[in-house]
Structures are given as C-alpha cells and as structure tokens.
C-alpha cells in the first residue's frame, strides 16, 4: 500500500509557503542530503523498499531520522520496529529507552549560551499577544514542574491530567511530566470534564 500524494481531491489549498521557506526546512535539507528530488520521491523512498536502492523503505527512513535529528537514546534500540502482531500493534524502537524532554529541551538548554537563548516555543493568544520562551526558560520551568510532581509523589508511568486553556505554560507542564516519566493526559476545557472522566 502506498501513500496518497495526489492533490487531485483537494478543493482549495489554504496556504502555500514560499519556495524560500520550503528550501529552508529540515525536510528539504534531509531530501538534499539523500538526493531526493521532490515530495513524491520522498514519500516513495520512505514508504517503499525500492529495488536496487538500499537506502529506502520505512525501516531505513525511521533509522535515518534518529541519526539525522541526533536523537539520543539512553539504551540503544535493537531494531527500528517490530510489527509481528500486525501493523496496528507496531512496537517502535524495541529495547530502546529515551526521554523526550531530554531530547527536545534539556540538551539544547545545556549546550552553549547561543543555543540556550534560542526560542524554543512561540505562543500567540487570541488577542494577538505573543510570548517567546527560550530553551533555557523552558528547561527551568519544566524542571520546576518535575520537582513539584515528584514532591507530590508522582512516579514513572502514572497519569497527570492537564485541565487548562492553551497557554504557554502547557508546554512546560507537558515536558515536566515527561521528565518524571509521567503520562500527560490533556483534558481540554472545550469538552465537558464529566464526559472526559466517565
């Protein structure tokens, strides 16, 4: 089965980025690094094991992405995936252990002053207010959340319900949960809390 890459069924394209923006993306850099000419070729090469092309297929892509994004595992994975029980039960990177908060926040906050002061998150409110949070700030805030969760006895594998509006602090709370190994469960205020809990 191949992915549908055709735009024939699309009635209207709402936003199309400039070519300069497209060329500046990580996806474009990945494609250039691997000699992939266009989006359709990217989809084909990353979803299909092509005859005569060793660097192709789902396993190649997801293994390559780990290296390309420099994702750090505490324990190396044995294989990219195990779908022996069917594709709906795929186990990704079996044997591997990582912490999302470390890969997304902590290591960027610890590198050097330039990296730590780069913007990690941009939030824009409905009233037009914009807040930028650096890796350093996100690191500090998420550590405060992690410490507060641990002080309240939250342990790895436990769930933490997040019932709050979409404000910038959500990101710090989410990564604070990840730091202690807790599972963050968003309960958006747009839904009835009673329905979510029953």
Task: Briefly summarize what is shown.
By secondary structure, the chain is α+β, with helices and mostly antiparallel strands. The protein has helices at residues 19-23, 26-33, 39-47, 58-68, 100-110, 113-116, 135-151, 169-179, 193-197; strands at residues 81-82, 91-92, 119-124, 130-134, 159-162, 183-186. Helix content is 41%, strand content 12%.
CATH topology of the largest domain: Rossmann fold
In total, the number of domains comes to 2
> Outline, from the CA principal axes?
globular
| Biggest sheet statistics | 2 strands, antiparallel
Quaternary structure annotation: single chain
Strand composition percent: 5-15%
Total strands: the figure is 6
Which strand order does the major sheet show? Answer: 1-2
> How much helical structure, as a percent, in the residues?
40-55%
Low-confidence stretches: none
Distance between the termini: 38 Å
Q: What is the CATH-assigned architecture of the largest domain?
A: 3-Layer(aba) Sandwich
Name of the CATH class of the largest domain: Alpha Beta
DSSP helical segment count:
9
Mean pLDDT: 89
The radius of gyration is 20 Å
| Alpha-beta content class | alpha+beta
Give, in order, the helices and strands.
Answer: HHHHEEHHEEHEHEH
Domain Acetyl-coenzyme A synthetase N-terminal: 59-104
Keywords: Ligase
Family: Belongs to the ATP-dependent AMP-binding enzyme family.
InterPro entries: ACAS_N (IPR032387), AMP-dep_synth/lig_dom (IPR000873), ANL_N_sf (IPR042099)
Walk me through the structure:
- With 198 residues, the chain is an alpha+beta fold.
- It has two domains: 19-92, no CATH class; 100-197, Rossmann fold, CATH 3.40.50.
- Helix content is 41%, strand content 12%.
- The protein has nine helices and six strands.
- It has helices at 19-23, 26-33, 39-47, 58-68, 100-110, 113-116, 135-151, 169-179, 193-197, and strands at 81-82, 91-92, 119-124, 130-134, 159-162, 183-186.
- The strands form three sheets. A two-stranded antiparallel ribbon has the order 1-2.
- A hairpin with an 8-residue loop joins strand 1 and strand 2.
- The longest helix has 17 residues, at 135-151.
- It is globular.
